[in-house]
Amino acid sequence: MSALKIKIRNILRSRKINSFLLFLGMAFGILILTKLSKDYTNTITLDIKTVNLPDEVVIVNDSSQKINLTLTTYGFNWLSYYLKPPKIEVDFNKDVIKKNETYLWTSKKGFSNINKQIGKETTIQNITPDTLLFNFDVNAIKLVPVKPEIDLDFSFGYDIMKGLKAYPDSVKIIGPETLVSKIKFIKTQKLTLESVNKPINKKVSLEIDSLNPIINVKTKWVTLKANVEKFTEGVIEVPVTLINVPSNLTINYFPKTIKVSYYTSLEYFNKVKTQDFKIICDFKKADKNSSFLTPKLVSEPSLIKTARLQQQSVEFIITE
Questions:
Q1: Alpha helices in 14-173 (DSSP H)
Q2: What is the DSSP string of 138-164?
Q3: Tens of pLDDT along 119-176?
Q4: Is residue 25 part of a domain?
């Protein structure tokens, strides 16, 4: 190692140079703090952000609105403004006046709101321009149902009685009438669940990527819920009723009752009664070349999920 390098290294290691650098840094820091603590007046250009815009209204200005604020405030505040410029909110409930197809904002009407956003330590000296125009158009609003897309595989003996529901079950869409009128429902993203044996409560996004980007969907997520229960199968014997028999005929038929298999939750199993079912055979639909009628289950309780007849024909005889 050369003598020059050794000499430089020794100087850097010396306490004197370290102390000098420390005091130099402290002096520089104090200078910066002093500068930032003073008031300065300057002009800054900030973007406008519209808030509380009516759902049916869309702003059609070609470019983003901007506003120039001449402010007097501490250097610290100016530093924050330059590092992360705030957006000035224009509240359409308070700050604007509607004139024909234009919303009009004036610095006089909007001053109070801007002053609140800027803060107490900042004084507004000037606002330009003193007027902003927001051209707008009116869109159609429609409430469309949500269609859950779900693939369920239940554990053995488990099922859902009343089906799976979306919360909310419909969402608001906004856009041109010609586009909105064609949308009948919005699907959820596909949800696949296996070996389900507990209540379902899942948050899923809506399938909106295929929609025209002009259309605004106010809700992006829904919650799918269902009460998963233990299920069982039961069998009940139900009387068969013969209908539309001509008054001049006497009909004898067999069997007089048919067993019905039904599927329901354990909670409702003991509440299912014979009188909740009704089986009919319509004599008008009898084949002239046959002595059999087709039974039909025309009424069943809401407490069951499915039901089926264990016998598909009823024999009849015409007697005088």
A1: 15-37, 75-83, 107-118
A2: E-EEEEEEEE--EEEEEPTTEEESS--
A3: 777 788 888 898 888 888 788 889 999 999 999 999 999 999 888 999 999 999 998 8
A4: no
Verify that 188 and 277 share a domain, yes or no: no
Strand segments, DSSP code E, in 180-227 are 186-187, 191-196, 200-205, 216-217, 221-226
CATH number at residue 159: 2.170.120.40
CA-to-CA distance for 17 and 90, rounded, in angstroms?
56
Question: Which pLDDT tens digit goes with each residue over 30-65?
Answer: 545 555 456 778 888 888 888 888 877 877 765 568
Q: Can you tell me the distance from the alpha carbon of 258 to that of 237, in angstroms, rounded to the nearest whole number?
A: 6
- Reading the block at residue 265, the tokens are 């939750």
91, 65 contact by CB (below 8 A): no
- Residue 196 sits in which domain range? 140-226
The SS3 of residue 110 is: helix
Q: Would you say residue 4 lies in a domain? A: no
Please report whether residue 192 resides in a domain. Answer: yes
- Give the integer Cα–Cα distance in Å for 219 and 223: 11
Kindly state whether residues 130 and 145 are assigned to the same domain. Answer: no
Q: CATH code at 268? A: 2.170.120.30
pTM of the model: 0.58
Check if the beta carbon of residue 189 is closer than 8 Å to that of residue 150.
no
- Asked whether the beta carbons of 96 and 90 are under 8 A apart, the reply is yes
Tokens of 179: 């586009």
Q: How many domains does the chain have?
A: 3
> DSSP state, 177?
H
